[in-house]
Each structure stands twice: as structure tokens, then as C-alpha cells.
Amino acid sequence: MTSFNFKSIFKTINKKNNSLNNQESDFLNNFGLAEFGSALDMLAAAELTTTNKLKKGYLNHAIDEFRHAQLFFKHAKNLINNSNNNSANVSGVAEIGERIRYLNFIGEKPIYSELNELDFINFVMISEAAAEKYFTKLSNNKNFNSETRALFSLIAKEEGHHVLYAKKELEKRRKSGVKGIYKSYLYIKWFRFKTDLLSNTRKIWTKIGDLILALIFFIFIPINKIFFKKNYKFNTYDPRSMI
Amino acid sequence: MNKYVLGISCYFHDSSVSLVKNGKIISAVQEERFTGIKGDSSFPSRSIEWCLNSNNLKISDINYIVFYEKPLKKFLRILNSSIEYFPKSRSFFVSQMKRWLSEKIWTKTNIVKKLKFSSDKILFCQHHLSHASSIYYTNNLSHSCIMVNDGIGEDQSFSIWSGEKNKIKLLDEILFPKSLGLFYSTMTSFLGHQINEGENKVMSMSAYGNNSLDNKLNKVISISDKNIFHQNMDYFEYQFSLYNNFSNKLTNLLGDPRTPNTEFLNKDLVLLSDKSKKYANIAYSTQKITEDIIERQSNHAYEIFPSDNMCLSGGVHLNCKANNESFKNSKFKNIYINFCPSDSGGSIGASLWAWNNVIEKNENILNQDVYLGPSFDNDFIEETLKDLKINYTKFNTYKELLSDASNYLLKNKIICWFQGKLEFGKRALGNRSILARPDNKKLSQKINNEIKNRESFQPFASSVLYEKAEEYFDIDSKFKNSYKYMSVVAYDNKKNTNKLSGVLHVDNSCRIQLVEETDNTLYYNLIKNFFHLSNIPLLLNTSLNLKGEPIVDNPIKAISTFLRSNCDLMYIGNFKIYKND
Ligand SMILES: [Fe+2]
Ligand SMILES: [Fe+2]
Ligand SMILES: [Fe+2]
Q1: Which of B73, B239, B337, B410 is most buried when burial is the number of CB atoms within 10 A of its CB?
Q2: Please, what is the average pLDDT of chain A?
Q3: Is any Cβ of chain A less than 8 angstroms from the Cβ of B35?
Q4: How far apart are the CA of B403 and the nearest CA of chain A, in angstroms?
């Protein structure tokens, strides 16, 4: 689990104090999408790495994350099937894609290609450790039923294994005299902090943007509604024009 | 000197890139195949990189870049909707503006900046013209009527065009908010499926229903003599809402919408409850009225531009049942629907349009190849298998591989099949497929439940030897140019029903792909080998991917898919890998 925006879903879900199945299933689906996103990150690492020995490890890690995603999706589906509520959301396939990108802060290029191998291993170790910590906390939250908690605890355990694999890799490097491991660790700490900050600033800007746009909406749209004539026919087509 | 045009489609859904060299598409791929995000709509950087690198080109070698629609025209339509539906349109306005102001409105600037490309060589085709071009310019037709039907372009949702001597002209159109495509998508979300993904599930559900809700659905949308069809917009909210497609009025008319992921059929594949019956009937009426409207559209098109040929494009024409029902009695003699009717095909259409209208005028083009994506040679595959420490068997000849694979198919094994170039478009046409014998219902149920995790009512497509198809299905010669892309269903002709039990839907239809040796030699010979062993000239064919994932592009994704699936074997290049290794 390499998700950045994970912390905020975690915080919201940890506050959960009732047992609304639909809401819970939405959260579980979000976790599923976050796991899915990290599976894609790991798969990209397996595709791109030139360290042949790591290919298998990355692929296995990706397969674990895909499985985590499916466990969350399946559990969410069970909750829905056992409830009588009809209000579950249906998103378009494009929105789901956007959600995966948002939850994992996936840009145009996979994260692996933005870091070097050593940095990436540190990145995996730190992110997985964070995930392990959060899922352990959730597994102790009595507001969830026993099945959900068992799922959280299973995932926490497996994220713990991922931490160990990454640690082992780093240890191997240390023993063979690779320099700069700690520096890389600090860099990733900073990298994650920076990305988190960026993501949070983006959220604040989004809120400010919403306000400004709402203001524009209530001032300009009514004026246009009075004066605007629905007439935007363009009959000559200029292939260079965006209109 | 060679001339190149790069077509781009993105920012809506299903981004893609296509590369035209001297009038022929030489490469095309959807961004989702690289990113692993199904229907990915982001700027297709990775696809562009691949198109250039795999052809040893630099961006400076490209003569023109063409975008598949006119962004500002679309922006104006959205502003117009916000104004018209004020004040209900508030959250629509806010979320649309955020998307537009942060990205879409800067399409030209983005292309210039991201690709370091000169802005005066960037062109913009119209959305429906891109659709029309994607079908007209991939068939060598001097005279054809063209019909485009989708959710929404800039402002058109339906259009009729004439194709004459390589020139396309607009003849008639229907504008937003009226839209057959958005009606179907709305009903898709009402029935608990994802928009732009679950439409084919509505089509599959419809076979379980009857016409008892036709009258109710007719209040929502109905045939009209004056302007093809009438749509009562009170039942919809998509015109001013990004997240709700239908209004309370529709819920009052039809009852609660279906909750996603709830069971529809029981274990014996019979409708589970009265609720399931209701949803099946809604799906039935939705599908039926859609077919009736398309038939009306086509009659109208024939009136204004009679021709022997009809080219169809736009996402609505992914509906292979409607394609059959609406055109089986049509006056058009040949119906053309190809591998890319949806928006991903926009890049293909836009680049071919630019070639034929801006760069070289009046050149005939014929390009029907659907295998336009990445391929991997045996050395690369073997190295990958070694790196991943996966045991494999190597075949020295394709003959050995084909005989091995067909023998395992005969023994009821489910195989993954990864060969040659990746296909473009929604359908797996034999290079990235999961295959099984077609006469075993249990096998197809296993693929549905344990491998693809699809809903139990979803049927499978089949790939059929071209010359044997008539012994199994009612083949209509009108569609001979469309069957090869799985664009039309055909019905069991009752001569060999027992051999089709794994691929027939409850209404005895099947989405078929007719395979000729010239289309895909290896795949054709696999089916032929299987035919020699089993006397069945077809295979069950479903795409090589798992639920929620796009079709795989490369060996690592294929192996990851295989290892996570319950498939028995994978044939990848010249190699075979097993499960328990
Ligand atoms: Fe993990
Ligand atoms: Fe995980
Ligand atoms: Fe479209």
C-alpha cells in the first residue's frame, strides 16, 4: 500500500460510530481502490526495473496488493447484499479511474520512474509501514463488526510482510557496501511529506476554488440567463480552431 | 519523404493515440493499456511515447497533431446548460468549471508544453466527424451514408453524414440534451451498472425481460414521426448534474433503482426475485426502444442519403444486439461497424480525417488492421520468464504450439493466449484472450464466476471459422464487414445447438467474431486445429484481463493476470506456462 491520501480516508473511517452498511461499504471500496492503485505502482516497478532480481519481488508484491483490493471489494459487496438499503452510488468508469489516481497520487508517469531503485525500496518500506500502522488501528476499532476487523488485521499483517521484504533488501545493500541508504530514507521521508503537503494544499485550493466558482455562478449565470441567446452555431470549420 | 499525423483523444474517457504514416495507421493504443486504469481519460503521455519510440520517431518528425474534438465548443455547451438550468446547475457548474479550467480548456497549450510541439501544427477535428472518419476512412468506400450515435460530442448526440469520394459532409443532427446514448447510460446507472462500462450488461439483462413496462418507458422516450424520437427531459438530470443521471420522476415511475452488485439470477441462472423481474423488464424496454429508435434513424438516413453502404460509429453502436435488430430489415445492403466505435476510436478518426482533408487530399485508404499496439519478441518473453523464475516449456515451431494448445482446449482447460500485437478497441480479437471450448456450460460459468468475476447473466463471445459460421448461426451477409470485429450478434440456427451451450445467451444469440486466415493467421489456425480434434469450429473468447482491469499489454501484466486467475495454462509467444509452478 503506497497510497498518499490514505491518511484522510483512514481518519474519517476511524471516526465511524454507527453501522451504516452503505457508508462502510463506500469506505471499503475506497480502500480497495487505494490497494488497486498500489498494485499498479508495483506492477510498473516490475515492468521497469533493470535489476532483474527485483522483478519477481515487485510482481509478487503487486499480486498481493491486487488481492487486497479484491478482499475489500468483496467485503463491500457482501455488506451491500446483506442490507436493504438502496442508496449505494454508481460511478462511471472514468470517475473510478480518477479516484484511483487521486487516492494514490498517480501522475502521468508511474512513481517508480520518478525515483531511483534505492529510493523506491525506501519508499515501499515507509509507505507499507504506515499502512500497517493504520490497518492495525482499524482492526482494534470496536465500531466495526468482527469480519471487517478480521479483514483489517489480515491486511495489516501482510503489509507488515512487505515492510520486512523491503527492510531485507536494504539490509542486503548495506552489507554489500552500498552508500547513501540513510540519506535516501530521509529523502523519501521528505518526498512523502512534500507530496502530502501538496495534496493537502490542493484540497484547500479546491475548496477556495469551489467558493469562487459558486460566487461566479450566482452572479454571472443569472445575468447571462436574462441576456444570453442560445446561439453558438459555427458553420465554417477552421481545423486550427478549438471552436 | 514520409509524412506523419498523430491523433489524440483524451480528457473525457478512454484516452488513446493513433499514428498515421502516409495515410495508413501504423500504430494505435489506448492509454489504459499502459496505466492499468480502465477507461483512463488522462493525457496519453505513455501512448505517445510508445507510438514514437516503437517507430523510431521524434516528435519533430510529426507533421501534424490532431485532437479528436473541439474543446471550446464543448465548453460553450456546458456553460449554456449551466445557464439554462440555473439554479439547479450549481454543483454541475462548479465541478465542470474545475475540470475545464484546470485542464481541458488548455488542451492546445498542454499539447504544446508537454510535447514541445509547434502550436500552428495542432488541428482540431469535431467529435462526431472524428467518429464518422474512424469508420469511413478505414473502409475503402467511395459512396456511403454514415451515422454517428453516442452520448454526447461537443453538442451533437446523433448525426448523419454523407461519404462521397473521400469527403464527409454533415446532413442532419440531433443536439444535446436530447441523446439516445445518454438515455441508455442513464438506464445503465438506474440498473446499477457503471456508465461507459455496464451498458453491455443492460443489453444482456434485457434478454431476461418482457414488454410489460414498455408503456411506462414510452413516457420517458418514444418514437416520433416528426423528429425521430421524443425524450421527456423531466425524467433526467444529466443535463445539469454530473453525478445524478435520472430525476425522482423516473424513480416515481419505475420504483427504486437497482443497488449495484446485488444478485440478479439464482444459482440455476433463473431470475432471483420479483425485483429481478422488474429490472429485467426495464432493461428489456430500454433495449427495445433503443433498437426502434435506431431503426427509425436509419430509415431517415436512407431517405436523405440513399446508398448501398452504411457506416456506423459512436458508443451506441457497441450495442451488438441493437446493431442486428435495427438493421436486419434495412434498405442499406452493407453495414460497416469496426473495432473502434467508441471515443477511443476518436484518435483514429481524427488522424485519418486530417490526412484526407488537410494534408493529402483525395487519396484512397484501406486499413482494417486492428492489431496496432505493442508486441514482444520471443527473446524478450523468455528473458522475462527467466527473471520471474517461472518454469516454461518452449515450442520450436508454431505447429507444435497450436497442437498442444488445441489439445488442452479439448480437455476442457481454460487457456490464456498472448500473441503478436495488442488489439485496439474494446474487444479482444485473438491476440490477448482467454479461451475455452464453447460447448461446456460449466466451463463458461467457471470463467464468469471464478476468473472474470462477471455477473452470472453475462454471456460470452465466440470466435468462429469464417467458412463454417453458417453451419451454426444465422449469418446475414449485410454484416459481413462487421462480424469480424464482434460488432453484431447472430442467432443459433438450431443445427448444432449442443456445440454452443457455453456461448449462447438465454435468447439464443451470440456475439460472434468471424475469423479469416488473412485477418489473424495464428488465431485462425488455433481454431482450425481445435476443429480438427473436436469437430467444433469455434472457441469461447473473452478478453485477457480480470474484473476492473483493462486488457493486458505486455508479458508482465499477462503473467500477473494469469497467476491471479483460475486459468489452467498460458501460451505466451512460443512458450507455455502452467499454474502450479
Ligand atoms: Fe502492501
Ligand atoms: Fe496492501
Ligand atoms: Fe463519442
Answers
A1: B337
A2: 84
A3: yes
A4: 31
The answer to whether the CB atoms of B192 and A96 lie below 8 A apart is: no
Given this model, what pLDDT does residue A8 score? 65
- Verify whether the Cβ–Cβ distance A96 to B38 is below 8 Å: yes
Q: What is the pTM of this model?
A: 0.94
Non-local (6+) Cβ contacts of B386 within 8 A are: none
| Best B387, B391, B564 residue to mutate vs chain A (most A CBs within 10 Å) | B387
CATH of A6-193, one of 2.60.40, 1.20.1260, 3.30.300, 2.40.50: 1.20.1260
Determine whether the interchain pair A239/B354 forms a contact, defined as Cβ–Cβ distance below 8 Å: yes
pLDDT tens-digit readout, B197-236: 899 999 999 999 999 999 999 999 999 988 899 999 999 9
Cβ <8 Å between B357 and A239: yes
Whether the CB of B194 is below 8 Å from some CB of chain A: the reply is: yes
Calpha distance A56→A45 (Å, rounded) = 10
Q: Which residue of A has its CA nearest to B197?
A: A93
Ligand nearest to the CA of A127: 1
The complex scores an ipTM of 0.92
pLDDT, residue B581, reads: 47
Phi-psi region of B265 (alpha: psi -120 to 50; beta: other; left: phi over 0): beta
User: Has residue A5 got a pLDDT over 60?
Assistant: no
Distance from CA of B57 to the nearest CA of A (A): 20
Helical (H) or strand (E) element with B334: strand B334-336
Grouping H, G, I as helix, E, B as strand and the rest as coil, residue A152 is helix
Which residues of chain B from 379 to 418 reach within 8 Å of chain A, CB to CB?
A: 384, 387-389
**Domains in chain B with CATH codes:** 4-143+339-359 (3.30.420.40), 175-335 (3.30.420.40), 378-578 (3.90.870.20)
* DSSP codes, B384-445: HHHHTT---EE-SSHHHHHHHHHHHHHTT--EEEE-SSPBPSSS--SSEEEEE-TT-HHHHH
User: Which residues crowd ion ligand 3, with CB under 5 Å?
Assistant: B 150, 343
Residues of chain A with Cβ-Cβ distance to B46 below 8 Å are 108-109
DSSP type of residue B501: T
Ligand 3: centre distance to CA B129 (Å)? 10
Over residues A230-240, the pLDDT tens digits come to: 555 555 578 88
CA distance A144 to A17: 9
Q: What is the pLDDT of residues B78-111, one digit of tens each?
A: 988 888 888 888 888 988 888 888 888 899 999 9
User: Which are the contacts of B545, defined by CB distance < 8 A and separation ≥ 6?
Assistant: B432, B551, B552, B561
Under DSSP, the state recorded for A237 is: P
Lookup: cell for A44: 510498473
CB contacts of A216 in chain B (<8 Å) are: 97
